[in-house]
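quick one before i forget lol
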Amino acid sequence: MRFLLLCAGFAGTRILGGFSLPMAWLDMTRDCRRCMVFVGLTVVLCLSTAAQGQLLKRSRYMNQPVSALGKSSAGATLVEETDAGARAAMVTQGRPVQAFVAGDDLQTAPPTFDEVGVAVPASDSESRYGTLTVEGDYGGPASVWSRLDSALHPPSRHRGLGHPLQQESWLYRPFSAGWFMGMVQGGPLIDDWVGQKQGFVGGYRLGWDQDYYWGGEMQFAFASIRVYDSPRAITAALEADPAGHERFDHRRDAALFQWDASVLHYPWGDSQWRPYLRAGLGTARVRFDDRLSRHYDKTVLAMPLAVGMKYRCNDWLALRFECADNIAFGGGSGFDTVHNLTLTGGAEIRFGGTRKAYWPWNPGRTYW
């Protein structure tokens, strides 16, 4: 199902892009309709897949039998019980657990946690368990990311907003491959000569979340945007070719291809609803014709600035929505610096990574 969903997104984006790039015959309303229909079908497929995965997970969880886990070194037997979907480990016999006493022993106690699972720092930062790191545990090594953004978020894996994840994490599958599509509002290409209207944008993404609050991403995007001519350009074309100027009255499109690498910041951390900020650098290739049949085909520096939201449907599927300003610096290339505003939606497949399993035997789980 994951492979089919990923292939459907890639194929649909490419098909719609193929309809949009030679848009001399395609009306804008019809193009929007195609995009909306495909996006709607994809969203329904994603939601149904996520719901099916949740039902299967709950069914396996509820039907798990009661089983004994074995005996500890003190002769205690741990029994795993299933009661209305909740399991608890019980000590049936053996010595009671020795509580920590006041005084110096408080400094050697393990860290405590609040009701949402955020670690509460110890009173002495130099305790034997070490200082609290960005990952939310004690004694872990501090990464370069944690040193750079120590002032941007608390020393825990989430802020307690957006439904924090418990016993799950985005970093369990830190890599992602996805697709997106949407609408683009173009800006003027040459001041008082030729500009852009609306069009279709689509593309693919490859990402890697290196931290609960930071990630990286590479994006390939293509767009087809309808162009218009200013009155000055129309007058100039009429004076240059009175008989043939009407050949430009049909629809013309500007073709845009952009590649960029971006850094993502997640201010809420490891939560199911995951807003983000994105900024990067790359290159953009812009192609269009003006009213006088002059052809422009330039590759320039590009910089995407975006704000968006990710929603984690299950352990391998996430939905994503984004609003971005894709800036193409055209100074000295024959056209102006262009701001292309995009509003897109898509899906990403999560994969990779290793997950901790606290089992004394192999439970038969498989990850990919």
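fyi The radius of gyration is 28 Å.
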